User: Fold this.
Amino acid sequence: MTASTATALLLHLLADRHGSPAALLLDTGRLPAGAEVPLNLLEELADGSMHCCYRADAAPALAQALEQAGWHALAADKVQRADDALPKDLAPAVQWIAGDWFLAPPPKPVGTQAASRALALQLVQLVSADADTHEIEALLRQEPTLSYHLLRLVNSLGMGTGRRVTSFSQAILILGRAQLRRWLNLMLFSSREGDRRSAMLLARVALRARAMELLSKACGEDKQHQEQAFMVGMFSLLGVLFGMPLEEVLKPLTVSEAVQRALLEHGGEMGQLLCVVESAERADHAALAGCLAALQLDAADYNRILIDAVLWMQDVTAGKAGSPHA
Assistant:
């Protein structure tokens, strides 16, 4: 398959009955007629940790090729769409939940939840301002769930230390500031007590951030730009996470003008990178093609980036991601 015949893939993340990311759905219904599908890339996903499926109405030749690549037809009665909230009552046959239910506003926090959200927002501010390690450590001591996830992460990475990490200062030292910044922001999405959206939000934001980082690299940008692209992907869902306008969440944060413009106006090159991931999430082939053309990237480039980002997202949600650098 050559770049000229490639078609951008559309993949939708499905939750299991408990609301955790568990399956990938290839949107064969949105593929143009005669589209060539990169089966070698799809085979990589089939070897991953998530169930891989395609719409049962796929053309027979495509369905046969996908089956050989390790993908399976998804019967209509096996999936239910939800856009407002995670359904409480599901038919026995339903295995997967589609839709953007996890992007709905969270319940208004009360009591300890409100205090936890305030601490989380404060932590975002400290990390974005590159605050002193002692300040970050002091705040982590007040947020036990985040602390647990940080230590779990560092120990799962190994990092060649030969011993278990048991203190925040050790964890911060081992990770380094750049890694700490991105991992703490990732953990904000994974540790919201009582928020059933957390697992799917973490998956969505990890996929966005990693894809934008890899897109930045594919555009020939340097490490600093790639890191900023990652953070734009990360910050783009902070408003959803906290149930606040994104502009309000960003006000107290120390972010560059380019990052702020990308987030609030979709301006500049990083804004174009954000347009790529958002148009893919909307399954808007025309918009996706236009965004890629503006970046002078083709569908083959995008498909490789998408598969790499999905594999990394799977590792993040499983708590075993290695170095997130491109």
